[in-house]
UniProtKB/TrEMBL annotation:
Chain segments annotated as transmembrane: 14-37
PROSITE patterns listed in its UniProt record: OMPA_2
Species of origin: Oleiphilus messinensis
Protein name: OmpA family protein
Matching InterPro entries: Bact_OuterMem_StrucFunc, OmpA-like, OmpA-like_sf
């Protein structure tokens, strides 16, 4: 009997076990609280950085739109989803890749704000040529198809930009022919809209230039 009493007396009291358990739970709670606070701080910092990035992006976009205000108002230029579209009739005569004086003058006004826009974003400019869906009339042009015409027009605009001050490493040309029309090719007016050159900022590394 005495041995049983000694064994019982050697067992830790229940309150001590409960205290250890509560201490462990408090420790876990503190760790969770610290983790939650850290996560919230990181989330708030990321949100603040994202807001600042978007504000800077909006300022650059507004500066570009301000530079484009006059050509946008006169319909010579469009701005959709960050892509600057220039009417083919402003840049070229029908089935021609020779840049008109009006088109060169317009390109010259865009170089300053475009360079700032691209430098701030660490991007480069893709100049894309587009045509309508009418096939090239054989005998009336030196181009076999719309792909060749759109490619040469994109190259002409690219070269003009470089000649007027755009760094060569910041611009490249692309051709899309009659693909990706802005509106269905149903009449002369719609086809005139699709004959265009677009300029769009793209991330560096999109091409193998570097």
């Amino acid at each position: 009997m005495a041995e049983l009493d000694d064994a019982v007396s050697q067992e830790p009291p229940v309150w001590a076990i409960f205290g250890d358990l509560m201490s462990g739970l408090v420790g876990v709670f503190v760790l969770l609280l610290v983790w939650a606070l850290g996560f919230q701080l990181e989330l708030a910092q990321n949100l603040e950085e994202e807001v600042a990035r978007r504000q800077a992006e909006e300022q650059r976009r507004m500066a570009l739109e301000e530079a484009l205000a006059d050509p946008l108002a006169t319909g010579r230029v469009t701005l959709r989803d960050g892509r600057i579209g220039i009417s083919g009739s402003v840049l070229f005569s029908l089935n021609s890749d020779q840049l008109q004086s009006e088109g060169r003058a317009l390109l010259k006004t865009l170089i300053g704000p475009l360079r700032v826009f691209l430098d701030d974003r660490g991007e480069m400019l893709m100049v894309s040529g587009f045509t309508d869906d009418l096939p090239i009339q054989k005998g009336n042009s030196r181009y076999d198809d719309n792909w060749e015409l759109s490619a040469q027009r994109a190259l002409t605009v690219t070269r003009a930009l470089v000649e007027e001050g755009m760094p060569p490493e910041m611009v490249f040309a692309a051709a899309f022919g009659a693909q990706h029309p802005t509106v269905p090719n149903v009449d002369n007016a719609s086809r005139a809209q699709n004959r265009r050159v677009e300029m769009a900022p793209v991330p560096r590394g999109t091409t193998n230039h570097e």
